[in-house]
Prior knowledge:
By secondary structure, this protein is mainly β.
Amino acid sequence: MIIVxxxxxxDPTSQRGTTFTGTVWxxxxxxxxxxxxxxxxxxxxxxxxxxxxxxxxxxxxVLAGGGLICAAGEPPRRIRPGDVVWVPPGEKHWHGASGxxxxxxxxxxLGTTMWAEEVAQADYLQSPGD
Length: 130
Ligand code: MN
């Protein structure tokens, strides 16, 4: 048996707080810098980010479960394992689990993340446009 090492820096998983709704855990993949933050993020069913923007964009790769992503002014869209999402610089959006499933995604965030208001429950419950 061969185990190819993934993260090896020993940083503990951290539970996210004030800019997330519900229980969210993030695990560093590589040491964070001002330029790029790479995390594996786990959202329990119903959990999601607040509205936010990424200064230089964000790449998401859905690893397991199922979730939603929403750009401001549009209905939420479903994301599934294997999906890759590019969020352009400055686009206001949120992402997280669906109400019925957990979500795990890899998040590569470029530059500063600018946090805004919580996603209203009514907005979260909008029917996904798929
Ligand atoms: Mn984002």
